Amino acid sequence: MTRSSALNPAASGGELITEDRGCNNCGYSLLGLPAGGLCPECGFPIPTPSRRFPSGDNLTDAPRTYLRLLSIGLSGAAIAALILGIGLVSLADFNGVTAALALSVGSVLWFLSNWIVTRPRPLQNVTVPDATLDNRVWLRLVLSAQLSWVVLACFAVLFEVAAGRNWNGWYSVAFWGVLVFSLVSVLALVPLLVYLTSLALWAGDHGLGSRLRASAWAIGFCGPVNVILSFLAPHMGIFIGLVSLIALVMGLFFLFGLGMAMVSLVQLSTMAAWAIRNNAAIRARSIRIAKRRAEEMRETAERQKAVMSPNMVEGGGGPPATQNRTIPFPAGHQASTSGLRIEPSQSGEIYELEPRDDD
């Protein structure tokens, strides 16, 4: 396939690309070019609507630059989640120095990683719109909610400093700030898990998507119920045992949801790395197919040229002359002008026949 065929829809047989998207290899704008052709900048094949996914494209069909950034962001988020977990455990154990250090490092890494993860995905002509993945307002809200971890880290540092210098007023503010924003930060995971659920479904892993959705429910529902029942239990009289038991069960479900969310985040980062390898394999296959098609078109053009060349030489550069296949009348025969058809017989005698119906 030549450069001209990449720019000509009739030559490549693909539909024109109507959205401004970049080449998967070099990022060159493909707006107005035909799907199935070649990028005029680097010669990389322009993907056509995939038949492997009747409902649209897949994570592995995304550009490699996006996949690499997504893998880096998810890996950073998985590491940050582990550091934040250490910080929360240290808070519960009243280890202020470890909590302040872990929350400070983990919250910054967590926010930066999710800033990368929540970048809008590149849309292609076969991409099915998704209200979660493609809504920029929703993505900003998801990212803004993760700032609560940074605020929690600030209160944790203030709590440690106030405790060491006997700042009783600031100590009280820091204590309630840590308590409130610990709950707010954990609840901020819910919209992020909803987004990651859609990301897993786009990647084609419905099992991982279901686990992320279950984690969102466990954190968003069981966590607040556990906190509310824990405060109400001392005031429930004879029902204190039942309420405390329900609070304990909800707390266990909450912790299970947190653990499952962390494991699912690691699995999602592994999937992003796998998507990069799969994308490279698809890219190599597309290049082989494009080269094979170009070779076939070149061979076809050479065969057509070889067939046409003798006729062009014989006809003096123009189309070959048409041979005269008119059958001559017998010698001495006079053409009839009366509209009758005259045919010779095998004996040499000439018979005059009636005119044909179509004459």
Give the gist of this structure.
With 359 residues, the protein is mostly helical. The chain is 63% helix and 2% strand. Helix 3 packs antiparallel against helix 10 and helix 9 runs antiparallel to helix 10.
Order of helices and strands: HHHHHHHHHHEE
Choose one word for the global shape.
elongated
Give the C-alpha Rg.
Answer: 38 Å
Number of domains: 2
Biggest sheet features: 2 strands, antiparallel
Report the total helices: 10
What share of residues are in beta strands? under 5%
Overall mean confidence score, pLDDT: 77
Give a description of the structure.
The structure is a single chain. The protein has 2 domains: 1-47, no CATH class; 60-286, no CATH class. The protein is an all-alpha fold. Mean pLDDT is 77; it is low at 1-13 and 50-55. The protein starts with a helix and ends in a 6-residue tail after the last strand. It has helices at residues 3-7, 9-12, 64-92, 96-117, 136-145, 147-165, 168-187, 189-202, 206-232, 240-314; strands at residues 341-344, 350-353. It has 10 helices and 2 strands, in the order ααααααααααββ. A two-stranded antiparallel ribbon has the order 1-2.
List keywords for this structure.
359 residues; 2 strands; 10 helices; mainly alpha; two-stranded antiparallel ribbon
Write the layout of secondary structure elements.
Elements: H1 3-7, H2 9-12, H3 64-92, H4 96-117, H5 136-145, H6 147-165, H7 168-187, H8 189-202, H9 206-232, H10 240-314, E1 341-344, E2 350-353
Antiparallel strand pairs: 1-2
